[in-house]
Amino acid sequence: MTSNDHTRATVGQLSEFDAVIDARSPAEFAEDHIPGAINCPVLDNEQRIVVGTLYKQSSPFEARKVGAVLVARNVANHIETLFADQPKGWKPLVYCWRGGQRSGAFTHILREVGWSAKRLHGGYKSWRHHVIEQLETVPKQFRFTVVAGPTGSAKTRVLEAMQRHGHQVLNLEALALHKGSVLGDLPGQPQPAQKMFETQVMSALGQMDPGRPVFVESESKKVGQLRVPDAVFQGIQDGKWVRVQASMEARVDFLLRDYDYLMSGPALEQQLDRLKELCGGATVNRWKALAAAKDFPVLVAELLVQHYDRFYLRSMNSHAEGAPHTTFAADDLSDAGIDALARTIANSVTP
Predict the structure, then answer these.
(1) I want to staple 239 with a disulfide (CB 3.0 to 4.6 A). Which of 12, 138, 144, 153 is the partner?
(2) Is the pLDDT of residue 205 over 80?
């Protein structure tokens, strides 16, 4: 970008604008976008395919003629429905995939109206490069306090309580829309794309103070189908670990509440089939029979003892080669008990 190009801006200037407009298609926007951006496609999903096909199979000139009509029509609609009330001093930033024709056309029209619009130099690709760079360096600035404990220890709920109390929390499972276990899919909530997950992690860390501890849950390298960024995972491994040691009764009771949607729905037996390779067909068939009989307390207890606890112990034995951990006993995982546990753990960490 040349120094005298007053129609372009960099990622570092994002905060200078009143709005960030993503001119890409809804499908591109859904995969990932700059936090806070609004999607105002100059070509929708179908139109982008039509113009792209025409460009490749017919001629770039014909594609541009068709595209120009669609872009003008769509931008006019956005101005009429979304931006008509904006004052003359309004400053929007527009971006597309590379900062090329789509954002260029949108920015030109907005500037012709009289607004001080600019387009993002390098487009979404420059934003993505920024995210990757930040995820390599920013996590190293933080001291992570890692909340560990076997499945059913209410670790995520403890983090949520800490966040309500004003502590800094990186809740990877909330960002990943997944509970982290093989049965951790959330009903009706598909996980975000990997790029979106990484943007959310970077954005969350960017709002935190490196001078204060960050609480995070002990996670494997993947949360569902999403990979935890390498520097974040290493920060977890190197962090100060605390363990929640809850009774079996408390854990079973908590999981019956926390997975109520799964226990009361039709998907449980299908989900249990995913454990056949690890636990054997006969064992899974027994669990499915317990599910069919609605004997959920026995089912959950067996899942913990025969599957989850074995993997948890293996994970703990491989972590930090016997590094010291502070243990917090918890026999009450009710909402009040979780709140009290969160306060106790947070108070044990020196700011």
Answers:
(1) 144
(2) yes
pLDDT digits (tens, 9 = 90+) for 112-171: 999 999 999 999 999 999 999 999 999 999 999 999 999 999 999 999 999 999 999 999
Maximum alpha-carbon separation in the chain: 73
- Identity of the amino acid at 232: V
Phi/psi at 124 (nearest 5 deg)?
Answer: -60, -35
- Quote the strand ranges of the chain, DSSP E: 8-9, 19-22, 38-39, 92-95, 118-120, 144-148, 168-170, 214-217, 222-223, 226-227, 240-246, 326-330
CATH of 8-132, one of 3.30.200.20, 3.40.250.10, 3.20.20.210, 3.40.710.10: 3.40.250.10
Supply the residues annotated as catalytic.
96
Partners of 329 in the β-ladder: 245
**pLDDT tens sequence across 36-88:** 999 999 999 999 999 999 999 999 999 999 999 999 999 999 999 999 999 99
Fold of 142-348: Rossmann fold (3.40.50)
Per-residue pLDDT tens for 270-285?
Answer: 889 989 988 999 999 9
